[in-house]
Write a structure and sequence with these properties.
With 401 residues, the chain is mostly helical. The chain has one domain. The protein has 17 helices and no strands. The protein is globular, with a radius of gyration of 21 Å. It starts with a helix and ends with a helix. It is a multi-pass membrane protein. Belongs to the chromate ion transporter (CHR) (TC 2.A.51) family. Its main location: membrane. It comes from Evansella alkalicola. InterPro entries: Chr_Tranpt_l_chain, Chromate_transpt.
């Protein structure tokens, strides 16, 4: 006789790989608006419409992915694919959701390179789009992640340290320190009630995934120094970005900029233009890596950068799903997460100033365009693709004045 748990596991773990891919592919074509909007699309499609998960299991999965570094919405999609159809289901869900934006951004990068239009007015417009988008992201994140003075103070120190100490390891140090501070300040925090998510992955396999994650994180920098091979250096930079960034696609911007621009792999103008273009496509913001890789090394670079930046997300979600219940029941973990999320807000504020503001707002008319785009996002609630279109047109007009 089947128990209730067995019935639930059977209900949520069976499904064809083609079905998982096609549903995710449709979401990848239509999911505009960033990670928070993606979670809304996922909830409508996977929970309400298809009933692959119940409400409580979906909420727990979202909580896990918010806890982990990397692209939260992509990790939720991977997790749903795993729960539905196992490991291959996770891969199909990932491919379906990311493929449309990867192809679009790779083609855009090759177009930019082939026609040498880096000085065009609409490129400046796309850079100004990045100002409006990141400012909007900061407002939304700050209201949720820094609700009290303790977390506001953590965010303030993160801003100051990020701006005054600009090194490759700065962001890592800030996140670790903020986690320790949150661990101490919120040590009495009550853990939320949890529900059990049925995952067709063994704990042994999960441990292997976590071992690979940490092994690559520490091994790749040494291989980079020993070999001086460009492809290994690229893989290392994008892998670390995907491994160490909390808060989603907007927060990866400063880390990637410090990894790529100073070493001469591309100009800051091309970097910010691609970030602006990324706002015009659906799917995860981490596919910005495909644009960067294509600028550096064509289609091969796009593929390598995409795999490298998303691989940590795969390894972490597969490595933690079987243990999430025990983690969430620990109040100290919740406190550390509070500190980390507050630091993310501070890092994003610093990124808004440099490199985004300092490279994009060069005159009063640039600021005026940024204000209009910001108003379109915040007050008029227009979709992101219209913001990008308006920014490109505005930048062209400014260039003609």
């Amino acid at each position: 006789m089947k128990t209730e748990d067995n019935k639930q596991e059977e209900k949520y773990s069976k499904g064809s790989l083609l079905e998982v891919f096609l549903v995710a592919f449709r979401l990848g074509l239509t999911s505009f608006g960033g990670p928070i909007a993606h979670l809304g699309y996922f909830h409508h499609e996977y929970v309400r419409k298809r009933k692959w998960l119940d409400e409580r299991s979906y909420a727990d999965l979202v909580a896990l992915c918010q806890f982990l570094p990397g692209p939260a919405s992509s990790q939720v999609g991977i997790g749903i694919g795993v729960i539905r159809s196992g490991l291959l289901g996770g891969i199909m869900a990932f491919l379906g959701f990311t493929l449309p934006s990867v192809l679009a951004l790779t083609i855009f990068a090759l177009f930019v390179q082939g026609f040498d239009i880096s000085s065009a007015g609409w490129i400046q417009g796309l850079k100004i789009v990045a100002v409006a988008v990141v400012a909007h992201a900061i407002l939304g994140m700050a209201s949720k992640l820094t609700p009290d003075n303790k977390r506001k103070t953590i965010a303030l120190f993160a801003v100051i340290i990020t701006l005054l100490w600009q090194a490759v390891i700065t962001q890592v140090v800030i996140i670790v320190a903020a986690g320790l501070v949150g661990f101490w300040i919120y040590r009495e925090q009550k853990a939320p009630e949890i529900s059990h998510i049925h995952v067709p992955i063994s704990k042994r396999f999960a441990v292997i995934c976590l071992s690979i994650f940490f092994g690559l994180l520490f091994l790749l920098p040494f291989l980079r120094e020993l070999t001086s091979i460009h492809w290994i250096a690229m893989f290392d930079s994008f892998y670390r970005a995907g491994s160490l960034v909390f808060g989603g696609g907007h927060v990866v911007l400063p880390l990637l900029e410090r990894e790529i621009v100073p070493v001469g792999w591309m100009t800051e103008e091309a970097f910010l233009a691609g970030y602006g273009a990324t706002q015009a496509v659906p799917g995860p913001l981490f596919t910005f890596a495909a644009y960067l890789g294509a600028i550096m090394n064509g289609w091969g670079g796009a593929l390598l950068a995409t795999v490298a930046i998303f691989l940590p997300a795969f390894l972490l979600i597969l490595g933690t799903l079987p243990f999430w219940g025990a983690l969430r029941s620990n109040p100290h973990i919740q406190g550390a997460l509070f500190g980390v999320n507050a630091a993310v807000v501070g890092i994003l504020v610093a990124a808004l100033y440099h490199p985004i503001w300092t490279s994009s707002i060069l005159s009063p008319v640039d600021f005026a365009l940024a204000a209009v785009l910001f108003g379109m996002l915040v007050f008029w609630k227009l979709p992101p693709w219209t913001i990008v279109l308006a920014g490109a047109i505005g930048g062209t007009l400014i260039n003609l004045i």
